[in-house]
Specification:
The complex is a heterodimer of chains A (116) and B (112). Helix content of chain A is 0%, strand content 53%. Chain A has 116 residues and is mainly beta. Helices cover 0% and strands 54% of the residues of chain B. In chain B, a hairpin with a 5-residue loop joins strand 7 and strand 8. The relative contact order of chain B is 0.33. The chains are: A mainly beta (116), B mainly beta (112). The interface between A and B is medium-sized, with 26 and 28 residues.
């Protein structure tokens, strides 16, 4: 089955700096890669996702890049703010569409702390 | 608010007991997924239902079972509970044909 590795496990940055979180996956059939942000005791919230036919996607201060050949994808947060502090999870899924088999395999999570 | 609802928010029970967790998906979503989040195992996929039928199974124990009803709400049944079953249980739902999954607020289960 799919295995997703996420690094680093903790990341501490100063407000205004950039933060980068990296994930690798093992199953070449995976073609959907979402990122979730989870605050303490809350639900995971989808913040951005990318599909295998796209190499990069941006949404304001957040961007995700995908290298299918190397089987890795990354989350980039620019101009970080204290409210970005949370646990970030990457995930991989084998289907970008269809009615079945949409299960997500998650990485271990990265605790991001942004210091004011 | 994702539109996915889960009850109860918290559940405290004893070892050996049985509990039922309930999830209502977003309006129009036919797929429901259950995940377990614990400190040592992270976020793990348990099971997926689509329009009442089981579609995919993950690391779900035989003591656990789930179903999706005609009104599309889903229940996760956990029996013969052990201390190690203490975790956050999340339900997520998605629309047919797309993969974005939206998570509910979770049920925190504590087994004493």
């Amino acid at each position: 089955g799919e295995n997703v590795e996420q690094h680093p496990s903790t990341l501490s940055v100063q407000e205004g700096d950039s933060a980068v979180i990296k994930c690798t996956y093992s199953d070449s059939a995976s073609n959907y890669f979402p990122w979730y942000k989870q605050e303490l005791g809350k639900r995971p919230q989808l913040i951005i996702d990318i599909r295998s036919n796209v190499g990069e996607k941006k949404d304001q201060r957040i961007a995700v890049t995908l290298n299918k050949t190397a089987k890795h994808f990354s989350l980039h947060i620019t101009e970080t703010q204290p409210e970005d502090s949370a646990v970030y999870f990457c995930a991989a899924s084998p289907n970008a569409g269809g009615t079945s088999y949409g299960k997500l395999t998650f990485g271990q999570g990265t605790i991001l702390t942004v210091h004011p | 608010d994702s539109g996915v609802t889960q009850t109860p928010k918290h559940l405290i029970t004893a070892t050996g007991q049985r509990v039922t967790l309930r999830c209502s998906p977003r309006s129009g979503d036919l797929s429901v997924y259950w995940y377990q989040q614990s400190l040592d195992q992270g976020l793990q996929f348990l099971i997926q239902y689509y329009n009442g039928e089981e579609r995919a199974k993950g690391n779900i124990l035989e003591r656990f079972s789930a179903q999706q009803f005609p009104d599309l709400h889903s229940e996760l049944n956990l029996s013969s509970l052990e201390l190690g079953d203490s975790a956050l249980y999340f339900c997520a739902s998605s629309v047919v044909g797309v993969n974005e999954q939206f998570f509910g607020p979770g049920t925190r289960l504590t087994v004493l």
